[in-house]
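W.,

You were right to be curious about this one. When I first looked at the sequence I had no strong expectations either way, so I just let the prediction run and decided to look at it fresh. Below is the sequence, 487 residues in total, followed by the output.
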Amino acid sequence: MSRLFATICLGLFLFSVAAEAKVVVYPEIIDKELIEDNRYKVYVRSANASDEWKRLQVLSVDVDMDTRSKAAMAQFDMDAPVEVKVVTGGIKVSDVKIRPLARGIQSKSIDEHTFMFRLDRPEKLSVEVNGDRKRNLHLFANNVEEETFETLDGNDVIRWGNGSKDIFRKNCRLIYFGPGVHQPKDLPNNEINIPSNCTVYLAPGALVKAKLRVDRAKNVRIIGRGYLFQPLRGVEITHSKNVTVDGITMLNPMHYTIFGGQSKDVTINNIKSFSVRGWSDGIDLMCCQNWTINDVFLRTSDDCLAFYNHRWWFWGDSKNLNVTNTILWADVAHAMNVGGHGDDLSKKGEVMENIVFKNIDVLNVDEDDDNYRGVMSICCGDKNRVRKVLFENIRVEDCEEARLVDVRVLFNEKYNTVPGGTIENVTFKNISYQSEGGDMYPMRIMGYDVKSVVRNILFENVILNGNKMKSIKNVETNEFVEDIFVK
């Protein structure tokens, strides 16, 4: 009886878990500037096949500054395994590739216009039909939100509406953007200033046409499942401390997706972004310390990630910058870029140290100019001294034009006023690159002169097209490089 009772209890428990599984579809956004993509119809349901399909809104997103292509994007929340169905309309499906390839997600054909696949956990995916990487479908499956604010109200809550001007109230505890389109009026630079000790919540189905600016503030959170649409920048965090940005999506910012200047103790999590303009980098940091960037997807028309020292009105060293569990797609320029700008007037130069890139999937890098082709790049100028940088568990898929590694002390006449200082103690560990056609340009490691050298570089378990790297015979170097090791 006890075994039977245990079996019954287990069955009831599993039934309860299945009954409570959530698939959350966001409210539809209607706006004349926001275009829907009619090439794909996307449906989702829990892995229990008896559940009804829920249709997702599929948005058009601009990608690749060179071609101005129209890709697609859809997203939803899940807390248990789901099935996804994609209908391609007029496109006959001969091949489906779901990236990152390391996830091992395979599709099943239903008919010549329809395919399905299963997700066991939240993912950020590029679904490519018939090899088309410019007009692909980006699918983001998020965790179910733990916080919502529909019922919260009070004197210290701003429920944003068009024309709201009380955003500068200093005792604000919550700024709430509900479902719908929000276009602030009469604000300088079309930006919303966020005060200290405040949460900004973008609800699912919210479209905010503004930049969110955190300046000289602390204890700020910007969270939710809503969108920032064509802002000057997405989120700007300057001279601030203890800031979190989590869950939101940026569509076509005119400049950076997230900009950090002389700020510390910042967490960026589950951010998605698409950009198609010049200088529309993903996350750019200047003189920042103690940043954690986790689980983001960046498809940009300039550097996906760029970490610098002094520029403009920001000064000081950069330390303890950690990027983990992230997917990068650079339609232009670098995927990961370190060291370009610094204080050329200082005696010794500023320091960049303790920088980690770990568990990263790079889906593409396509750059015409050889000065900016690095997938993993440390290009050190303006007296910067860069040291203790780790690239670990980096998986790079087929790239159009790129160098897997580009480590140089240099003088870039376009951006630097003097050469860089030194680059020391850089590790490339568990790196893989798999080409589907042509190969990359050679890796490059170069110092500038006898005082501005590169030293102590380690390659450990680097696999290129299935072959382990055993020497540096195919790496471009010069006489200002000391101690390169291959394990």
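Here's what jumped out at me. The domain at 252-486 is CATH 2.160.20.10 (Pectate Lyase C-like). And, maybe more interesting for your project: Helices lie at 2-20.

Coffee later to discuss?

I.
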